[in-house]
């Protein structure tokens, strides 16, 4: 282990505790970690444990098909699920596909050792990323097979920088890396990482499951007209969406599910709207959708099902660090729009290449795209292209599970 990193871990833990009184996420992490030991004691010593780690909710959804397939095919295993982020843990702390759900411990040697002693995993599976050096070295030293699934690598990442050699060595601590595309495999081979297989992205398997099991949401289905579903939006997205909606014809309706649903953000959206809106929580209390033109989703867990009620979809994040999950919308065969920041996502680039996903920069571009797909012929052709693309992407879950548990 790098001594400098060990010191940084101590410093990071101290900072987390210092900011906790003023930062809700920090408080949630600290309070959640205090319950970890008690939760891990539920695991039975005489049954093997498969540990899955997801940084946040998106990675959980990505790894979920693999967790559930493992439970079906190898019921002897107990499933341990950990999160780093409160946005994942608070939504899925009671996920019934796992025996135990916890926060990942701080990446300090005492915390890591205690975690592994209580969890006693027989294998560890990290979903997409979230590389914690102390934990990875501890897993390797204990001989616990550790895998990375649905990963994707880019040349601009720290691993491949001239000064990133120490970080690159972390990848050798995995027994095998299951990556999304050939470009990732070639890049890893170039830098001496050989235990790599191209298996695709388990998210495609997951979004098919979600689409097949989509919840009926009457509050969304009652919104009549040409409906745009805008998911995981940030203020930068709303600067384009809300002015367009305010000036759109009366038959154009909006369902918006902001990425952050704290009161300040919700009130900001309502203030900018010039057409009648209602919150989903109000409908739950008995309010009728009636004459409202905009439904604001002020809770988590519904977005993936709500996309099916849209004629078009907008996915937020593309004017910030990176666009959010486009597949949850695209699986329904509707046009999906987003901002320009897509370079981290292979599937978004491929949706664009298949003319099923569309980058926009301005309100006028949004207007042109909506006009284009108001044409029934254009909408039908897009639906066919999207379905053909998705059909080629399924199967990563089965391939990875077969590699983890080869049949004799």
Structure description:
The protein is of the alpha/beta class. It folds into 2 domains: 3-201 and 395-404, 3-Deoxy-D-manno-octulosonic-acid transferase, N-terminal domain (Rossmann fold); 211-391, Rossmann fold, CATH 3.40.50.2000. The chain has 20 helices and 14 strands. It has helices spanning 3-19, 24-34, 36-40, 57-73, 86-92, 109-119, 133-141, 165-168, 182-190, 202-212, 218-221, 235-247, 263-272, 280-284, 303-306, 327-330, 346-353, 363-372, 376-391, 396-404, and strands spanning 49-54, 78-83, 100-103, 123-127, 146-151, 176-179, 196-198, 226-233, 252-258, 277-279, 294-296, 312-315, 336-338, 357-359. The strands form 2 sheets. Strands 3-2-1-4-5-6-7 form a 7-stranded parallel beta sheet, with helices on both faces. Helix 9 (182-190) links the parallel strand 6 and strand 7 (196-198). The model has no long low-confidence stretch (mean pLDDT 91).
Structural class label = alpha/beta
CATH names the topology of the largest domain as Rossmann fold
Radius of gyration: 22 Å
How many domain units? 2
End-to-end distance: 37 Å
Helix content: 40-55%
Q: Quick one: CATH superfamily of the largest domain? A: 3-Deoxy-D-manno-octulosonic-acid transferase, N-terminal domain
Shape: globular
Mean of residue pLDDT values: 91
CATH structural class of the largest domain: Alpha Beta
Unreliable residue stretches = none
User: What spatial order of strands do you see in the largest sheet?
Assistant: 3-2-1-4-5-6-7
User: What is the annotated CATH architecture of the largest domain?
Assistant: 3-Layer(aba) Sandwich
Report the biggest beta sheet as strand number plus sense, adding barrel if it closes. 7 strands, parallel
């Amino acid at each position: 282990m790098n001594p400098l990193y060990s010191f940084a871990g101590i410093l990071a833990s101290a900072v987390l505790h210092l900011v906790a009184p003023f930062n809700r996420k920090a408080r949630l992490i600290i309070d959640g970690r205090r319950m970890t030991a008690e939760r891990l004691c539920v695991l039975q010593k005489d049954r093997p444990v498969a540990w899955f780690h997801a940084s946040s909710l998106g990675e959980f959804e990505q790894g979920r098909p693999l967790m559930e397939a493992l439970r079906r095919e190898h019921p002897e295993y107990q499933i341990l699920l950990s999160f780093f982020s409160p946005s994942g843990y608070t939504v899925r702390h009671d996920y019934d596909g796992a025996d135990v759900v916890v926060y990942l411990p701080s990446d300090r040697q005492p915390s890591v050792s205690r975690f592994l002693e209580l969890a006693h995993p027989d294998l560890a599976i990290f979903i997409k990323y979230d590389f914690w050096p102390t934990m990875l070295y501890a897993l390797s030293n204990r001989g616990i097979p550790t895998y990375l699934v649905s990963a994707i690598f880019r040349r601009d990442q720290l691993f491949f920088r001239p000064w990133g050699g120490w970080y690159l060595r972390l990848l050798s601590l995995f027994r095998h890396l299951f990556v999304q595309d050939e470009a990732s495999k070639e890049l890893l081979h170039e830098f001496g990482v050989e235990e790599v297989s191209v298996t695709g992205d388990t998210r495609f398997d997951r979004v098919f499951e979600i689409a097949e099991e989509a919840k009926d949401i009457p509050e969304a289905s009652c919104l009549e007209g040409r409906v745009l579903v805008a998911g995981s939006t940030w203020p930068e997205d709303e600067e384009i969406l809300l002015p367009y909606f305010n000036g759109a014809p009366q038959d154009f309706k909006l369902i918006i599910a902001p990425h952050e649903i704290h009161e300040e953000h919700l009130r900001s959206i309502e203030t900018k709207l010039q057409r009648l809106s209602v919150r989903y929580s109000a409908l739950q209390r008995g309010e009728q959708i009636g004459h409202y033109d905009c439904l604001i989703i002020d809770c988590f867990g519904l977005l993936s099902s709500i996309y099916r009620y849209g004629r078009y979809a907008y996915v937020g994040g593309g004017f910030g660090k990176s666009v959010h999950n486009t597949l949850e919308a695209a699986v329904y065969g509707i046009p999906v729009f987003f901002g320009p920041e897509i370079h981290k996502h292979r599937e978004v680039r491929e949706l664009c290449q298949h003319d099923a996903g569309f980058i926009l920069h301005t309100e006028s571009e949004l207007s042109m795209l909506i006009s284009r797909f108001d044409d029934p012929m254009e909408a039908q052709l897009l639906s066919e292209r999207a379905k053909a693309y998705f059909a080629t992407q399924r199967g990563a879950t089965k391939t990875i599970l077969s590699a983890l548990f080869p049949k004799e």
